[in-house]
Amino acid sequence: MKTIKKINNKVLLHPIMSFMILIGLTIVISGVLDFFDVSVSYAKVNTKTGSVEQTLITVESLFNLSGIKYIFSNTVSNFVNFAPLSMLLILLIGLSIMDESGFLNTFFFVLTKKIPKFLVTFIFTVLCILFSITGDITFMVFIPLAALLFKYGKRNPIIGIIHAFAACGLGIGMHVFISSIDSSLINTTMQAAELITSNTTISSLSMVWIMIPALVIGAIVLTYITESITAPRFKYELEENEVVEDKDSLTRRELRGLIFAGAGALIYIIIFIYNIIPKVPFGGNLLDYSQSRYIDKLFGVDSFFNSGYVFVITILFFICGFLYAIGAKKISNHRELCNYFSHSLDDIGKVIVLVFFASTFISLLKYTNIGELVTASLVNVISKVSFTGVPLLVLLFFVSMISTILLPSLTNRWSIMAPTVVPSMMTAGFTPVSVQLIFTVGSSIGYILTPAMAYYVIYVSYLEKYNKDGTGLRKSLSYLVPYSVGIMIMWLLLLILFYIVKINIGVRTGMIL
């Protein structure tokens, strides 16, 4: 067995090497496509005139002088400006304090000691899905928390990492209320729908009736896959010098620490919530009032929440860890507190190197326009086929899923797809909101299966941290396939059911799927 494991480790490509290969393939493929003058045209709505314009997409080659200049001129800036890295470093500071102070160990002990594993996983799944409304930041918060939740629950942290990434990624298609991304998609959908009719309206609750069952069923499916398929693959192994503390109840100090931390966190959260409520005395200070929709006021590009959310969460982590340490008498001077800051950053070197190559691959792929080219080609397929009803629904679902692999950005892809897809499907009897829904849920299936997604590298980094045998990209993807397949089947059945039965998918929209 040991010999086999050594051979497998030698064959298993390190994620850094995998990203280097992907970089090389991107450079070569862009050169080949440019050599053969591959291009695709697609319809685009002019936001000023409302008219449809044909836009030509060509490949930007990395295999010529201008491409080489781009690589050497922009690699450093792309790495420095890679948002997931800076977010991770800041969040880890707060997470370090919570972990080293003992808050997480005690808190998760309370959660996991007498509650069944399935229920703990289910509740965590629902939280991942609901918080996915905040955008990709959920990956940064829930992946490290999941690792520690499972670790202190005497389970392999890898199970939690895989589950959290799958739940957060697939959650973008299951949260009940519209997110900031959904709001951007709605604007594009309405512009495309106006090519057919000028009476299109989509409310903030436009998909609530289908999202409620999707949330419940999806959480059950994800939890079942984790407990029945993923968990049996990973046994819990003690880390070096780790001692398992077997206890039945909290000590007085631990209880006092939890009370301190809970009180501080509650006050902080109340103050924060009050400042995101509009039209209350001295409240609503954290909203962007230049926007019309509340979701855009809260999560818009120029909103405080969008730019400061990471720090908001980090401060919450700091409050919980610091007050717990005081209540449980875990620190005796400021030097001990300062030492807590860097605990989770001890092995950050490998993560930084991995992020460097991942950010390089993502920026080069984006520069080449290969993702846009493939998306536009698939859109043209939809416009030329004579499908109607369920076959057309399924076609859009899979086109959305496949196009996500090379172009993960929902807003960029929908700007290419909507002007063609929305009018075509409206002509076939679908409503604009249903077309957007099919696109979003189809995209969510492929979203967790592409290394081109910026936060995939965070998932791989944490697998590398906790997996002593190493984790390659192929292996990390294989962990996620059951989740994508399970949710894909759920969504197809749900969408087809709502279409056949003609059930309203929303509130006060009068729209039928």
Question: How would you sum up this structure, described in words?
Answer:
The chain has 21 helices and 2 strands. It has a domain at 2-81 and 173-211 and 347-501. Strands 1-2 form a two-stranded antiparallel ribbon. It has helices spanning 2-11, 15-35, 65-80, 83-100, 103-112, 117-131, 137-152, 157-170, 180-193, 208-230, 252-274, 294-299, 304-327, 334-340, 348-368, 370-384, 389-404, 410-427, 432-447, 456-466, 473-501, and strands at 39-45, 52-58. The N and C termini lie far apart (54 Å). Strand 1 and strand 2 form a beta hairpin. The radius of gyration is 24 Å and the shape is globular. Helix content is 67%, strand content 3%. Helix 8 (157-170) packs antiparallel against helix 10, helix 10 (208-230) runs antiparallel to helix 21 (473-501) and helix 17 (389-404) runs antiparallel to helix 18. It is an all-alpha fold and 513 residues long.
Structural key phrases:
about 525 residues, mainly alpha, two-stranded antiparallel ribbon, disordered N terminus, disordered C terminus
Per-chain topology:
Elements (H helix, E strand, L loop, with lengths): L1 H10 L3 H21 L3 E7 L6 E7 L6 H16 L2 H18 L2 H10 L4 H15 L5 H16 L4 H14 L9 H14 L14 H23 L21 H23 L19 H6 L4 H24 L6 H7 L7 H21 L1 H15 L4 H16 L5 H18 L4 H16 L8 H11 L6 H29 L12
Antiparallel strand pairs: 1-2
